[in-house]
Amino acid sequence: MDQINYYASQLAYEMDAAELRGLLPADQHLALIDARHPEAYTLAHLPGAISLPARQLTPLSVGHLERERLYICYGDGAGCQAAQRAALKLVQLGYTVKTLAGGMDWWQRQGYPLEGLIAEPRLAMAH
């Protein structure tokens, strides 16, 4: 793959925190998938996200998802591959998917809101 195709693919299949924030909560055709462990999700997650750990994705576990939505998968951060694992499984099952570049880490660095049990979300980062 040459560099042009590489960068074009990244832009086609990823979005950054600022782009996602600009779409929320108005875009009803978009849904967030937290691909981390359920315990991390309980502690802190992006507003409106649902917990679907990458390691537990099966045709049965995602059967309730609407096919016409765009699913944005995220993990802890740049070093976490939970988002890519979840995205791959969802695409293989016929869903439209992008990943959130930088995951929770880059979302927090922008100062965007989170939901969950703890005030300091960095403590929740564990995929």
Automatic annotation (TrEMBL):
Signal peptide: none annotated. Coiled coil: none annotated. Pfam families: Rhodanese. PROSITE patterns: RHODANESE_1, RHODANESE_3. Residues 26-116 form the Rhodanese domain. PANTHER family: FAD-DEPENDENT OXIDOREDUCTASE, PYRIDINE NUCLEOTIDE-DISULPHIDE OXIDOREDUCTASE. This is Rhodanese. It comes from Chitinimonas prasina.
